[in-house]
């Protein structure tokens, strides 16, 4: 089965957006985190996250719902905060 990768963007304490991303973007996020980049820098620097709307899987859900969705789908995921 092909691996799927998602970013959970936590907009507010109770509102998240789940975006499906490429493995390349997923790996870039992990590298940026490892190199000390903050979440806003990550969000603003990756085009796939900031400009593409057709990759939104869920919107307006809680963090627990977002994690549950990606976990149940067997997706690799990372959480970033936009606040």
Automatic annotation (TrEMBL):
Organism, scientific name: Clostridium thailandense
Source lineage: Bacteria, Bacillati, Bacillota, Clostridia, Eubacteriales
Name assigned to this protein: Uncharacterized protein
Protein origin, superkingdom: Bacteria
